[in-house]
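Q: Hi! First time doing this. I have a protein sequence and I read that you can turn it into a structure. Is that right? Here it is:
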Amino acid sequence: MNPDEFYQSRRQEWELLSNLVENGRNDIHRLSPQDIEKLASLHRAASSDLALAKRDFPRHRITQYLNQLVARTHGVLYQGEPLAWNRIRSFALVGFPQLFRETLLFTLAAFLIFTIPAVVSGFHVAVSPSTARWYLPAGMQDVIPMIEDKELWTDIPIDERPFVSAFIMQNNIRVSILAFGSGLTGGILTFWILVQNGLILGGLLGLTTYHGIGFDLATFVIGHGVIELSVIFMAGGSGLMLGWALLRPGLMRRRDALALAAQKSVRLLGGAIPWLVVAGTIEGFISPSETIPWPVKWAVGIGSGILFYGYLFLFGREKKTRGNNIR
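A: Yes, that's right. Below is the predicted 3D structure, encoded as structure tokens:
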């Protein structure tokens, strides 16, 4: 292949890359996430073209042009913190909500795996409170006498709330990562973690309902629970996604299917975990407060849930253009 043939075969991609570089040179925010992905892909292709040009016609002006184009693209792609911040912002506003909707079936599966045992244990304990010992682990058996005395364990002294809030965040993050990582067992351990936590929450709600303080516990949970449980469902869904890739790779090699699922699940978990900071803050400062009336706590829980799911379902959608579509 001579230089002219080489140029004609690659000219359109080089021109597209040059236009993207020019658009993002002064203000990277002008590029959409799709443009940035295209820019990176074309950069790799141009780098490969440059290597061929240096080998076959090192002194030709095409080689000089490619060398400059690759250098300009590198400057846009690796300009440091502004681009890194832009990627984070783009992921938070566009990528994460899109990924949530793309993987929604796994999150819904985690929701059902958690909720069905919670409902079963809740009704069972509410009818037969002695069965609470079946559903609560050994480390939580000491709360049963408290509930029987119509007392909750949720009172947190004001001066301890900052430390408790930090502990709650850390614990929820640990549970979420465990639910995600357990997907490597084929989803079996993820399934069990969701079931176990569902049985515990349902058992506690059933027992407190039997002793007349179920509304008090629900009022404590509602403020932070919508966001907190939603993140746990996403983490569980991430683990189920890994397990599904291991068990049902489809037409792909199991290793490739797992790598693709891991890429999506890690990004989903990374976008979800920061919301545990919001939930932990509410749980540490608003949920245990005796001065905040229960309608406010319920309003915080319902309102935060509406905002959270509004963000997840509405952000990152492509804007519809007016006029007739060309088919």
